[in-house]
Amino acid sequence: MTKAISILGCTGSIGRQSIAAAEHLGLPVAAMTVNKKADKAEEYARRLKPRFVAAYDEEAAKELRIRLADTDIKVGSGMSGLIEAATWEDSDCVVTAVSGSVGLKPTLAAIKAKKRIALANKETLVCAGSLVMPAAKLYGAEIIPVDSEHSAIFQCLMGRREGELKRILLTGSGGPFRGKARSELVSVTPEQAVKHPNWSMGAKISVDSATMMNKGLEFIEAMHLFGVTPDDIQVVIHPQSIVHSMVELVDGTVIAQLGVPDMGLPIQLALTYPERKASPFERLDFWRMKDLSFEAPDYEKTPCLKLAMDCARTGGTAPCIMSAANEVAVAMFLAGRIGYNEIYDCALSAVEGIEIVKDPDLETILAADEAARAFVREHFS
Q: Of 244, 247, 230, 236, whose CA–CA distance to 160 is shortest?
């Protein structure tokens, strides 16, 4: 079991729940990072007493140094601060709860430092799974997924022998607009898009869940995490979000992981694995459960999911370009600068308009990420 943790992105939804899990388990938080929220960082620092805190934003870091001047807590900034937190000597587990490709370098640094990675940053594997997974194997670093779906698959595969897996059944609720045609979504507002029917999440991931880009990103992640091909994964729409994902074995047996829609459980498991500890989370009440339903995705109504699956098959820098373009597009949508349906248009245009490089190295991946962001800002602002 983990002895101390670093949390990258402690003020986001996953970060806050990771702090709650650490406090419940009595785990010290040795290092943590924020983006811009110096006031929240100070609040957490005084409560948790980490030895190191970093703000990615330089101005926030300056403010944080002033706020914590009366303590012995070291304050860092920028990418170097994130990397220092990820490799902090006293931590043996790093929760990567930052959003976007900013999590890539710190995660690779933590892997080289042989830390356990409690992985919540999708872009790390979406953009660079071909680099991250071999690095984890080389350095002997554990990667334990925090996403509820990947945690479910991870749990279903516990104790399975190599060669027993036939396919992964990746479930998704379908989001708040399940079954609606694109023509019905032209006037969707950010407020409507972030209201997920089952989960409480941050704004970006909530929009991704609405467009089902999130499920596409998870599709790519699952390929890398579990060493399978796109043809070995089937997306299944499950509106109740009770079955978090399943695996089918070669003999036809299907194993599922069930639970209430609460990220607390996969977060805690990532910290305690291979042990399980008592938790404060709500339990399933099967007597009250009305039904569990499953259906096929409609790719015409969820083109972001289809685009992500196509990029998974294309490989190279295609998933990175798509992910980066989508990240910028979602931010523009939340700011009221583009319409809901234009999120897909941005991602598709970037994938079609930027050269895709096969077998990229880290610098090529980071260059593709920046090119996709610049492309969307130039063509859709």
A: 247
